[in-house]
Amino acid sequence: MGIALKKILVITGGSRGIGAATARLGAASGYAVCVNYRHNEVAAMAVVEAITSAGGEAIAVPGDVGSEADVVRLFEKVDEKLGPVTALVNNAGILEAQMRVEKMDAARLGRVVTANVIGSFLCAREAIRRMSTRHGGKGGAIVNVSSIASKLGAPNEYVDYAAAKGAIDSFTIGLAKEVAAEGIRVNAVRPGVIYTEIHASGGEPDRVERVKSSVPMQRGGQADEVARAILWLLSDEASYSTGALLDVAGGR
Predict the structure, then answer these.
(1) Which of 31, 161, 195, 240 is catalytic?
(2) How far is 247 from 244, CA to CA, in rounded Å?
(3) Sorted alphabetically, which Gene3D superfamilies does this protein's record hold (predicted)?
(4) What is the CATH number of the domain that holds 103?
(5) What is the torsional sign of CA 82, 83, 89, 90?
(6) How far apart are the first and last CA of the chain?
(7) Which listed residue, 88, 145, 220, 246, has the most CB atoms within 10 A of its CB?
(8) In the chain, pLDDT over 90 holds for what percent of residues?
């Protein structure tokens, strides 16, 4: 009988919202978890403490996913403290203030694309170098956190964010095909309006309450509802799913 492969999960932007919910659920599902964060060490350590106090294994590692050097250090730290990654959730992302396109400048666009798109590419690259059978790995799974905005466009609010998430959809499909024969599955979830702190960074903390009537289910979603979809896509229960875009958006 072979030795069971240790399940090691890296979650970018794991200190709050969907990332934190995924970290907690991942630990409960048997993963050793790396909670990546950019600034909020207190929140990240609270997630780690919740996991370890329940008997799980977790570490917190700082790093800006838009920085190539930070991403390399992140995965090297995971190698050192936990072992080679077997599952990656590209969750880190940002919104900027609600704005029409004609008011956006290049600096804003650069920040949005760097955090939401380039960061996902860089983290996937490092994960593939460890997971791919082509590189001597044992396989693994990647879930990208996109957004239903990629389908709806987010007019008058976040067209740049929606476009960045559209890039994540295309990235998911292309990468899934690229590494499918190397033991790696790549899928995405597309959350709808979810009760998280990201709306405050866009300037409207209560945005979910304003828009929930446009959702067929007539409510906003909870971070745990998205986390459950992510963990399913990472699991062997989704063993024949790759390149899928799973909407968790109440019917939008």
Answers:
(1) 161
(2) 10
(3) NAD(P)-binding Rossmann-like Domain (3.40.50.720)
(4) 3.40.50.720
(5) positive
(6) 47
(7) 88
(8) 91
CA distance 169 to 191: 12
Residue 2 lies in a domain: no
Q: 3 falls in which pLDDT band (50, 70, 90)?
A: low
3-state secondary structure (DSSP) of residue 184: strand
| CA trace torsion 13, 18, 23, 26 (10° rounding) | -140
Summarize pLDDT for 95-124 with one digit per residue, the tens. Answer: 999 999 999 999 999 999 999 999 999 999
pLDDT at 2 exceeding the cut of 80? no
Residue 31 annotated among the catalytic residues of the structure? no
190: β partners? 247
Output the pTM of the full model.
0.95
Which of 195, 193, 199 lies closest to 213 in space, CA to CA?
A: 193
Alpha carbon distance 70, 76 (integer Å): 10
The token duo for 117 is 């798109």
Domain count, the chain: 1
Query: Does residue 189 lie in a domain region?
Result: yes
Judge whether residue 199 has pLDDT over 70.
Answer: no
